[in-house]
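User: Structure please.
Assistant: Input sequence and predicted structure:
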Amino acid sequence: MTENDLDDLYDLLSDEEVMQYIEAPYSRKKTESFLCSAGLAGDPLIYAAEASGDFIGYCVFHPFDDTSMEIGWILKRSAWGKGYACRLTELMLKMCRDLNEDAVIECDPEQETTRHIAEKYGFKCTAEGELSVYRLSVSDIDRYLPE
């Protein structure tokens, strides 16, 4: 991400519908702080997602524990239902494979779309609570990626 992503990121994170299963919508100040700490950090926790050069959201890709990478995405409503989340999942799974790391997706138990995508790519729910935790072993990644 770059500092130029601030306006687009604010539009995304201040959208109540986008944030429904994540947390309360962000203020501009909170968005700026998040961009600096997560997107512009030395080891970023998030990366801008673009389609045809336009900002459509961001990807989560960072260590979850000693053997796993957390993957995820938050997309603008205009990008929903177009296959972007699946494509981003595939790209991040390939990155996990290349790093020889398992993949983890965390989500609100009520977030059906994320759960559906996790299950489509072979993730198994390993914890239920305030957040559901889905895991996929690096040894199983290729089984769920398109050829």
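The two ends are 30 Å apart (CA to CA).
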